[in-house]
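User: Teach me something about this protein's shape.
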Amino acid sequence: MIIKCSNEWKKRIFSYIGNDYEKCLYIYSDLIKYGMDSESVAAWINVIDDSIRAVVMKYHNGMHIYSAKLDYNKAELVNLIRKTKPSMVLGVETVISDISCMLDDYSVEYGCVKKKKKCTENYTYDDVRTATLEDVKPLTEMPMSDDEFSASYTYDEMFGQISERISDGYGKTLYIRNENEICAQLGISANMEKFMVISNVYTAKQHRGKKYASKLLQYVDYISGGKGIYLFCYGNKISRYYDKAGFETVQSWGKLYIKV
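Assistant: First, the predicted structure itself:
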Protein backbone atom coordinates (compact mmCIF):
# COMPACT_ATOMS: atom_id res chain seq x y z
CA MET A 1 0.00 0.00 0.00
CA ILE A 2 1.18 3.52 -0.85
CA ILE A 3 0.35 6.18 1.75
CA LYS A 4 0.83 9.91 1.16
CA CYS A 5 2.43 11.37 4.25
CA SER A 6 1.89 14.46 6.34
CA ASN A 7 4.26 15.69 9.03
CA GLU A 8 2.63 13.27 11.46
CA TRP A 9 4.69 10.54 9.79
CA LYS A 10 8.03 12.31 10.19
CA LYS A 11 9.15 10.64 13.42
CA ARG A 12 8.34 7.17 12.13
CA ILE A 13 10.12 7.81 8.81
CA PHE A 14 13.28 9.03 10.51
CA SER A 15 13.18 6.02 12.82
CA TYR A 16 13.01 3.82 9.71
CA ILE A 17 16.00 5.56 8.09
CA GLY A 18 18.06 5.61 11.30
CA ASN A 19 21.76 6.20 10.56
CA ASP A 20 21.43 4.94 6.98
CA TYR A 21 21.25 8.49 5.57
CA GLU A 22 24.12 7.97 3.10
CA LYS A 23 21.60 6.03 1.00
CA CYS A 24 19.04 8.85 1.07
CA LEU A 25 20.84 12.14 1.71
CA TYR A 26 18.21 14.32 0.04
CA ILE A 27 15.23 12.54 1.59
CA TYR A 28 16.81 12.92 5.01
CA SER A 29 17.82 16.55 4.62
CA ASP A 30 14.78 17.85 2.73
CA LEU A 31 12.32 16.29 5.13
CA ILE A 32 14.14 17.94 8.04
CA LYS A 33 14.21 21.30 6.29
CA TYR A 34 10.88 21.42 4.50
CA GLY A 35 8.73 18.76 6.15
CA MET A 36 5.91 17.10 4.24
CA ASP A 37 3.40 19.94 4.19
CA SER A 38 5.48 22.13 1.87
CA GLU A 39 4.40 23.03 -1.65
CA SER A 40 7.81 21.90 -2.92
CA VAL A 41 7.90 18.52 -1.17
CA ALA A 42 5.63 15.48 -1.23
CA ALA A 43 6.36 12.20 0.51
CA TRP A 44 4.90 8.70 0.44
CA ILE A 45 5.64 5.41 2.16
CA ASN A 46 5.17 1.87 0.92
CA VAL A 47 3.64 -0.15 3.74
CA ILE A 48 3.34 -3.95 3.93
CA ASP A 49 1.95 -5.68 7.04
CA ASP A 50 1.93 -2.34 8.88
CA SER A 51 5.70 -1.90 8.33
CA ILE A 52 7.40 0.75 6.21
CA ARG A 53 9.21 -0.89 3.30
CA ALA A 54 10.16 2.22 1.30
CA VAL A 55 10.13 6.02 1.57
CA VAL A 56 9.57 8.16 -1.52
CA MET A 57 10.11 11.92 -1.66
CA LYS A 58 9.35 14.24 -4.57
CA TYR A 59 11.08 17.62 -4.45
CA HIS A 60 9.98 19.88 -7.30
CA ASN A 61 10.23 17.50 -10.27
CA GLY A 62 12.79 15.01 -8.93
CA MET A 63 11.91 11.88 -6.96
CA HIS A 64 14.09 9.95 -4.46
CA ILE A 65 13.45 6.42 -3.22
CA TYR A 66 14.89 4.71 -0.13
CA SER A 67 14.30 1.18 1.10
CA ALA A 68 16.24 -0.24 4.05
CA LYS A 69 15.85 -3.92 3.14
CA LEU A 70 14.75 -3.68 -0.52
CA ASP A 71 11.50 -5.46 0.43
CA TYR A 72 9.10 -2.95 -1.16
CA ASN A 73 6.21 -3.65 -3.51
CA LYS A 74 7.78 -2.87 -6.88
CA ALA A 75 4.49 -2.61 -8.80
CA GLU A 76 3.13 -0.04 -6.34
CA LEU A 77 6.28 2.09 -6.54
CA VAL A 78 6.25 1.99 -10.33
CA ASN A 79 2.58 2.98 -10.41
CA LEU A 80 3.37 5.97 -8.16
CA ILE A 81 6.13 7.07 -10.54
CA ARG A 82 3.82 6.73 -13.54
CA LYS A 83 1.13 8.74 -11.77
CA THR A 84 3.35 11.60 -10.56
CA LYS A 85 5.64 11.69 -13.65
CA PRO A 86 8.87 13.08 -12.14
CA SER A 87 11.56 14.13 -14.59
CA MET A 88 14.14 12.15 -12.60
CA VAL A 89 13.99 9.22 -10.17
CA LEU A 90 17.03 8.61 -7.95
CA GLY A 91 18.15 5.97 -5.48
CA VAL A 92 20.76 3.35 -4.75
CA GLU A 93 21.76 1.34 -7.80
CA THR A 94 19.92 -1.79 -6.62
CA VAL A 95 16.57 0.01 -6.44
CA ILE A 96 16.96 1.88 -9.74
CA SER A 97 18.05 -1.28 -11.55
CA ASP A 98 15.09 -3.16 -10.10
CA ILE A 99 12.41 -0.71 -11.23
CA SER A 100 13.96 0.50 -14.51
CA CYS A 101 12.74 -2.51 -16.49
CA MET A 102 9.15 -1.45 -15.81
CA LEU A 103 9.59 2.21 -16.80
CA ASP A 104 10.03 2.36 -20.57
CA ASP A 105 9.60 6.15 -20.62
CA TYR A 106 12.87 6.58 -18.71
CA SER A 107 16.54 6.13 -19.52
CA VAL A 108 18.91 4.95 -16.80
CA GLU A 109 22.35 6.12 -15.68
CA TYR A 110 24.51 4.77 -12.88
CA GLY A 111 27.04 6.53 -10.72
CA CYS A 112 28.00 6.79 -7.05
CA VAL A 113 27.86 8.83 -3.88
CA LYS A 114 31.26 10.13 -2.78
CA LYS A 115 32.44 11.47 0.55
CA LYS A 116 35.45 13.65 1.37
CA LYS A 117 38.06 11.56 3.14
CA LYS A 118 39.66 14.26 5.29
CA CYS A 119 39.55 17.99 5.82
CA THR A 120 41.86 20.43 4.10
CA GLU A 121 44.28 21.81 6.68
CA ASN A 122 45.25 25.01 4.89
CA TYR A 123 43.31 27.29 2.61
CA THR A 124 44.77 30.45 1.11
CA TYR A 125 42.54 31.30 -1.87
CA ASP A 126 40.34 34.31 -1.11
CA ASP A 127 38.41 34.91 -4.35
CA VAL A 128 35.41 32.69 -3.61
CA ARG A 129 32.15 34.64 -3.48
CA THR A 130 28.78 33.73 -2.01
CA ALA A 131 25.94 34.28 -4.48
CA THR A 132 23.06 36.68 -3.89
CA LEU A 133 19.75 36.81 -5.74
CA GLU A 134 21.29 39.29 -8.18
CA ASP A 135 23.68 36.54 -9.30
CA VAL A 136 21.02 33.91 -10.05
CA LYS A 137 20.53 34.77 -13.74
CA PRO A 138 24.21 34.50 -14.82
CA LEU A 139 24.71 31.48 -12.55
CA THR A 140 21.81 29.76 -14.32
CA GLU A 141 22.83 30.77 -17.82
CA MET A 142 26.41 29.52 -17.53
CA PRO A 143 25.73 25.75 -17.08
CA MET A 144 22.51 25.78 -19.09
CA SER A 145 24.49 26.82 -22.18
CA ASP A 146 26.21 23.41 -21.98
CA ASP A 147 24.15 20.75 -23.81
CA GLU A 148 25.43 17.93 -21.60
CA PHE A 149 24.53 19.72 -18.37
CA SER A 150 21.20 21.06 -19.58
CA ALA A 151 20.03 17.55 -20.51
CA SER A 152 19.18 17.02 -16.81
CA TYR A 153 17.48 20.36 -16.06
CA THR A 154 15.30 22.97 -17.65
CA TYR A 155 16.28 26.63 -17.28
CA ASP A 156 13.37 27.27 -14.90
CA GLU A 157 14.28 24.28 -12.71
CA MET A 158 17.90 25.41 -12.37
CA PHE A 159 16.89 29.06 -11.79
CA GLY A 160 14.40 27.96 -9.13
CA GLN A 161 16.86 25.72 -7.31
CA ILE A 162 19.56 28.38 -7.09
CA SER A 163 17.04 31.06 -6.06
CA GLU A 164 15.48 28.88 -3.38
CA ARG A 165 18.89 27.88 -2.01
CA ILE A 166 19.81 31.53 -1.54
CA SER A 167 16.41 32.71 -0.28
CA ASP A 168 15.79 30.12 2.40
CA GLY A 169 19.38 29.85 3.64
CA TYR A 170 19.21 26.06 3.45
CA GLY A 171 22.37 26.02 1.36
CA LYS A 172 24.30 28.43 -0.79
CA THR A 173 25.96 28.85 -4.14
CA LEU A 174 29.65 29.74 -4.28
CA TYR A 175 31.43 31.04 -7.33
CA ILE A 176 34.66 32.46 -8.72
CA ARG A 177 34.69 35.19 -11.33
CA ASN A 178 37.27 37.22 -13.21
CA GLU A 179 36.83 40.80 -14.40
CA ASN A 180 34.25 39.86 -17.03
CA GLU A 181 32.36 36.69 -16.15
CA ILE A 182 31.69 33.85 -13.73
CA CYS A 183 34.33 31.17 -14.21
CA ALA A 184 33.09 28.37 -11.95
CA GLN A 185 30.34 27.63 -9.44
CA LEU A 186 29.37 25.09 -6.79
CA GLY A 187 26.15 24.58 -4.90
CA ILE A 188 25.77 23.49 -1.30
CA SER A 189 22.32 22.00 -1.62
CA ALA A 190 22.03 20.74 1.95
CA ASN A 191 23.82 21.86 5.11
CA MET A 192 22.84 19.67 8.03
CA GLU A 193 24.22 19.11 11.52
CA LYS A 194 26.11 15.98 10.43
CA PHE A 195 26.80 16.56 6.74
CA MET A 196 26.76 18.81 3.69
CA VAL A 197 25.80 17.88 0.13
CA ILE A 198 27.54 19.48 -2.85
CA SER A 199 25.79 19.77 -6.21
CA ASN A 200 26.17 21.36 -9.63
CA VAL A 201 29.92 21.84 -9.62
CA TYR A 202 30.52 23.49 -12.97
CA THR A 203 33.35 25.33 -14.69
CA ALA A 204 32.77 27.29 -17.89
CA LYS A 205 34.43 25.54 -20.84
CA GLN A 206 36.79 28.44 -21.56
CA HIS A 207 38.09 28.34 -17.98
CA ARG A 208 38.65 24.62 -17.52
CA GLY A 209 42.10 23.46 -16.51
CA LYS A 210 42.64 26.46 -14.22
CA LYS A 211 41.75 24.55 -11.00
CA TYR A 212 38.78 26.76 -10.18
CA ALA A 213 36.60 23.77 -9.20
CA SER A 214 39.37 22.45 -6.95
CA LYS A 215 39.54 25.80 -5.19
CA LEU A 216 35.78 25.79 -4.62
CA LEU A 217 35.95 22.25 -3.20
CA GLN A 218 38.80 23.25 -0.90
CA TYR A 219 36.79 26.23 0.31
CA VAL A 220 33.78 24.03 1.15
CA ASP A 221 36.10 21.74 3.07
CA TYR A 222 37.50 24.76 4.91
CA ILE A 223 34.07 26.03 6.02
CA SER A 224 32.57 22.60 6.76
CA GLY A 225 33.57 22.49 10.41
CA GLY A 226 34.45 18.81 10.11
CA LYS A 227 31.05 17.72 8.77
CA GLY A 228 30.83 14.92 6.23
CA ILE A 229 30.91 16.33 2.68
CA TYR A 230 29.02 14.33 0.04
CA LEU A 231 28.37 14.62 -3.67
CA PHE A 232 26.75 12.58 -6.43
CA CYS A 233 28.91 11.57 -9.36
CA TYR A 234 28.21 10.08 -12.81
CA GLY A 235 30.83 8.92 -15.30
CA ASN A 236 34.29 7.40 -14.87
CA LYS A 237 36.15 10.57 -15.84
CA ILE A 238 34.34 12.68 -13.24
CA SER A 239 34.69 9.92 -10.66
CA ARG A 240 38.47 9.86 -11.10
CA TYR A 241 38.60 13.65 -10.80
CA TYR A 242 36.86 13.58 -7.41
CA ASP A 243 39.04 10.71 -6.23
CA LYS A 244 42.09 12.89 -6.91
CA ALA A 245 40.37 15.73 -5.03
CA GLY A 246 40.21 13.58 -1.89
CA PHE A 247 36.81 11.88 -2.19
CA GLU A 248 36.00 8.19 -1.97
CA THR A 249 32.97 6.18 -3.11
CA VAL A 250 30.64 5.20 -0.28
CA GLN A 251 27.53 4.12 -2.19
CA SER A 252 26.56 2.97 -5.68
CA TRP A 253 23.84 5.17 -7.14
CA GLY A 254 21.47 5.40 -10.06
CA LYS A 255 19.00 7.73 -11.73
CA LEU A 256 16.20 7.43 -14.21
CA TYR A 257 15.51 10.44 -16.40
CA ILE A 258 12.54 10.83 -18.64
CA LYS A 259 13.10 10.36 -22.35
CA VAL A 260 12.50 13.39 -24.58
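Now, about its shape. The chain has a mean pLDDT of 91. The first helix runs from residue 10 to 17. If you'd like, I can walk through any region in more detail.
User: That's plenty for now, thanks!
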